[in-house]
Amino acid sequence: MKYKTCTDYWLDKEKSSLRGEFENMYQDIDDPWGCGEFSDSINNKLFCEIIFHKRKFSDILDIGSGLGELTDKLYFYNKGGNISGWEISKTATFKARKKYPHINFENKNIMSDSLDSKYDLITISEVMWYLLDSIDEVFEKLYGSLSSDGILAIHQYFPYHQNFGNDIIDGLEDFEKFINERTGFKFVNKIVSYENEDRVLLALLEKKDT
Questions:
Q1: What is the pairing mode between strands 17-18 and 104-107?
Q2: Strands 119-125 vs 185-195: parallel, antiparallel or unpaired
Q3: What is the CATH number of the domain that holds 61?
Q4: Considering the domain boundaries, does residue 199 fall inside one?
Q5: Is the distance from CB of 169 to CB of 138 less than 8 angstroms?
Q6: Partners of residue 97 on adjacent β-strands
Q7: Is residue 187 part of a domain?
Q8: Angstrom distance (rounded) from CA 166 to CA 164
Q9: For 144-199, how does the pLDDT look when each residue is reduced to its tens digit (9 = 90+)?
Q10: Closest by alpha carbon to 152, among 162, 163, 164, 141?
Q11: What's the pLDDT score for residue 210?
């Protein structure tokens, strides 16, 4: 392994800056985030329940799909549908395609690749910290690629002591302010799950003009 922990692959702790070596991370570590082990976590179940409680979706995009565990769970809860996963790591994309051939996994980067289709559900799970340098542009892309009655679903961990990116978004409350003041989205459902002093946001958003 090049670094001691998976966090070290994406974050330079000394400089508090994005390192972003995701391809090396997936080459060195079979399941860097433990997504397979924790795929049935309470937070994942809650996330899927609030998404699919009253609705089935035709076209779904999962941003930052990794090895595909959550993407497959979305497929299961939706009982099928046209679902795609975007992942920046070629290695992770290759492994996800082999494990879940019924899902369309693509090696793409939301910060640099264009979204050319419309989706009625877009999910972002635990990738926001990697997008901070382009956060406004990313949310503009998401807005443009969501159908008029579509849902943007966010699953995001917020540490109590945040040392990275706090000059852009400082904690959960600041993220909520960002959504309300700098994007075209509004919250329609929101759960905050507590893990000791840390928090996990599970939220559904829709376009303000719907």
A1: unpaired
A2: unpaired
A3: 3.40.50.150
A4: yes
A5: no
A6: none
A7: yes
A8: 6
A9: 999 999 999 999 999 999 989 999 999 999 999 999 999 999 999 999 999 888 99
A10: 141
A11: 59
